[in-house]
């Protein structure tokens, strides 16, 4: 492919003359070297003007930003940018995919429209085809139609100007003559393990496959952003959310919702990018998106805002650790362990830098949160060949002396280089059951026995087997996809958790204030209770953040005074999964210790009638 990029300090470089553009098997090559596309989209997002810039410096700013995050590629979703965008890409070494103006509409049904599309495709390559950055082209986004029409357009583009690779739709109906495929499958986050890849899907391909619109993990709206809208657009959508939160007495939590959802979304982007990078033979991806798309239902799906400014959740340096030309990777089957286990992993590296790395020395280290070393080692030195995924070897470490319970960080690096990457794991004490406090009643049903215990002033921990579906939502680790407004019926439709890690109920369960991977199995086995019927001052211990189109007050762990007794409610099904999931057993231990201590003294009151509505199975 002609052109390349330079992003991070150790990067692929731009060739100012035409290179050899070849689709070799399932990979792209550039000047006879395999290249992995790491890109983002541009959907015509220019809130100040309403139109794209036509000067080169403005586009250089955008390209320099995406390069700083380790990207080398940009896809113009359903449009062709102006001359300045191509000229700036030539200078900055960013590869460009431009597209015809057709999206989500079948070709072959409207001759007049088809004629316009055909002429527009020709105008695009005749006007901008001389730019070495113009590497890929499709005839539009997510559509199909008459195969003869689509195939004709692909043939036409190849014959008219063979200097780039052409395809049919960006994820839609494919043609036999396409030179690469852009597809929305395989994709997604498959859980906390990092041993998943898509090699079976790639094995079925006979040409390069680009991941289509990877990510789309949702961030909560930051109301401070509205002051940036000083041009033709105003953030009225943010105003609607702001006013709804205020009416629901939740506005003071909005900044924390922003932080919790943002950090959660970045974790998911990291994992989805790494899945593709640890898939042998994969050709690359385009994120949707590195920055937000305010249109189409308020799609707040980027670590950057619509102005290409950082939201503060991930630095370019950190992002490049898992999204760059050279990325260490780790294969582990789980994230939660006990101290009687041995941590075992395979280290790999995806390397698409300008040359082989001779005599590379892999190293690994496990540290606790204070930075203290738990275990470390090196692997055999080797030559890391450019253009592919390489195994660095396997390693293991006893966790017997690890602090527990604790979060640990595993780092894999190449000694003497800046190439390094990190993964969080959690270690809990081994053996022993979670023992309930002697002075507490453990209940599985909201029934007369449970109510009588409270009426007698007792402590009760309720793990309800029944939660009224009309008063709750299914729990989920994964948040809203794309936009809760555009896809209002999607499941899941919540946005992770918010908690206070210093709350005594969580004293023996190490956690951040947001969803991290140790919460995965817990949230997958939970219900999110609608707490709108509780007092405005009532705050759950673990709040579930609702999507910003609905804004219900939700929770899966909360406490209250009820009829003179003290009640702790946990709608995470800990009793059922504690023997299978170390994190569940540890959270159960933490809750039992809390209820058995003097710290358990709920101050808020809940009415029995409200609890009846939520937890009583009578008549269900």
Shape: globular
Helicity level, as a percent range?
10-25%
When the domains are counted, the total is 3
Give the CATH level 1 class of the largest domain.
Alpha Beta
Any descriptors?
eight-stranded mixed β-sheet, alpha/beta, TIM Barrel, 620 residues, Immunoglobulin-like, 3 domains, globular, 24% helix, eight-stranded parallel β-sheet
What's the layout of helices and strands?
Layout: E1 21-24, E2 27-30, E3 33-35, E4 37-42, H1 56-68, E5 73-76, H2 83-92, E6 95-103, H3 111-128, E7 134-141, H4 147-160, E8 165-170, E9 181-183, H5 199-203, E10 209-215, H6 236-247, H7 254-277, E11 284-288, H8 295-298, H9 316-322, E12 326-331, E13 336-338, E14 342-351, E15 357-360, E16 362-368, E17 373-378, E18 382-384, E19 388-398, E20 406-414, E21 420-428, E22 440-443, H10 448-455, E23 459-462, E24 472-474, E25 494-499, H11 520-524, E26 527-530, E27 542-546, E28 554-562, E29 565-570, H12 574-577, H13 582-595, H14 608-615
Parallel strand pairs: 4-5, 4-11, 5-6, 6-7, 7-8, 9-10, 10-11, 13-21, 22-23, 23-29
Antiparallel strand pairs: 1-2, 2-3, 12-14, 14-19, 15-18, 16-17, 16-20, 20-21, 24-26, 25-27, 26-28, 27-28, 28-29
Verbal overview:
- With 620 residues, this protein is an alpha/beta fold.
- It has three domains: 21-322, Glycosidases (TIM Barrel, Alpha-Beta Barrel); 326-428, Immunoglobulins (Immunoglobulin-like); 440-615, no CATH class.
- It is built from 14 helices and 29 strands.
- An eight-stranded parallel β-sheet has the order 8-7-6-5-4-11-10-9. Strands 22, 23, 24, 25, 26, 27, 28 and 29 form an eight-stranded mixed β-sheet that branches.
- Strand 27 and strand 28 form a beta hairpin.
- The longest helix is centred in the middle third of the chain and has 24 residues, at 254-277.
- Residues 1-20 have low confidence and may be disordered.
């Amino acid at each position: 492919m002609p052109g390349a990029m330079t992003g991070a300090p150790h990067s692929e470089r731009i060739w100012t003359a035409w290179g050899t553009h070849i689709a070799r098997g399932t990979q792209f090559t550039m000047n006879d070297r395999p290249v992995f596309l790491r890109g983002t989209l541009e959907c015509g997002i220019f809130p100040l003007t309403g139109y794209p810039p036509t000067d080169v410096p403005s586009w250089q700013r955008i390209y320099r930003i995406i390069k700083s995050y380790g990207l080398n590629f940009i896809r113009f979703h359903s449009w062709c940018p102006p001359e300045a965008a191509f000229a700036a890409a030539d200078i900055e070494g960013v590869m460009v995919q431009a597209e015809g103006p057709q999206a989500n509409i079948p070709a072959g049904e409207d001759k007049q429209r088809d004629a316009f599309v055909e002429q527009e495709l020709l105008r695009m390559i005749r006007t901008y085809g001389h730019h070495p950055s113009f590497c890929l082209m499709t005839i539009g986004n997510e559509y199909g139609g008459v195969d003869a029409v689509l195939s004709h357009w692909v043939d036409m583009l190849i014959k008219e100007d063979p200097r780039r690779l052409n395809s049919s739709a960006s994820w839609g109906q494919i043609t036999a003559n396409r030179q690469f495929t852009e597809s929305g499958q395989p994709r997604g986050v498959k859980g906390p393990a990092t041993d998943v890849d898509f090699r079976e899907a790639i094995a079925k391909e006979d040409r390069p496959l680009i991941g289509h619109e990877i990510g789309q993990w949702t961030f909560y709206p930051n109301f401070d952003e509205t002051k940036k809208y000083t041009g033709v657009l105003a953030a009225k959508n943010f105003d609607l959310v702001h006013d709804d939160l205020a009416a629901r007495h939740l506005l003071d939590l909005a900044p924390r919702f922003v932080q919790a959802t943002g950090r959660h979304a970045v974790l998911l982007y990291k994992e989805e990018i790494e899945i593709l990078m640890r898939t042998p033979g994969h050709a690359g991806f385009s994120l949707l998106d590195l920055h937000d798309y305010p249109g189409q239902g308020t799609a707040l799906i980027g670590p950057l805002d619509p102005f290409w400014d950082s939201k503060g959740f991930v630095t370019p340096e950190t992002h490049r650790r898992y999204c760059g030309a050279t990325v260490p990777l780790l294969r582990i089957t789980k994230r939660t362990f006990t101290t009687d286990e041995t941590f075992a992993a395979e280290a790999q590296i995806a390397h698409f830098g300008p040359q082989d790395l001779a005599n590379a020395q892999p190293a690994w280290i496990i540290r606790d949160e204070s930075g203290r070393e738990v275990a470390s080692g090196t692997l055999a030195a080797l030559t890391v060949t450019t253009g592919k995924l390489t195994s660095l070897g396997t390693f293991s470490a006893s966790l017997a002396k690890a602090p527990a319970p604790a979060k640990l960080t595993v780092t894999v690096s190449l000694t003497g280089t800046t190439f390094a990457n990190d993964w969080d794991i959690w270690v809990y004490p081994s053996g022993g059951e979670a023992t309930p406090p002697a002075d507490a009643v453990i209940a599985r049903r909201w029934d007369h026995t449970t109510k009588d215990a409270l009426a007698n002033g007792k402590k009760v921990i309720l793990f309800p087997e029944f939660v009224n579906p009309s008063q709750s939502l299914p729990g989920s680790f994964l948040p809203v996809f794309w936009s809760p407004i555009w896809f209002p019926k999607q499941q899941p439709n919540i946005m992770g958790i918010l908690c206070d890690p210093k709350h005594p109920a969580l004293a023996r369960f190490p956690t951040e204030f947001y969803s991290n991977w140790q919460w995965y199995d817990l949230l997958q086995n939970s219900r999110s209770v609608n707490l709108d019927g509780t007092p405005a001052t009532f705050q759950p211990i673990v709040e579930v953040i609702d999507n910003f189109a609905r804004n219900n007050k939700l929770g899966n762990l909360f406490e209250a005074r009820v009829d003179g007794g003290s009640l702790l409610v946990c709608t995470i099904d800990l009793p059922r999964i504690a023997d299978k999931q170390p994190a569940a057993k540890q959270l159960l231990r933490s809750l039992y210790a809390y209820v058995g201590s003097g710290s358990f003294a709920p101050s808020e009151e809940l009415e029995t009638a409200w609890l009846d509505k939520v937890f009583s199975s009578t008549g269900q």
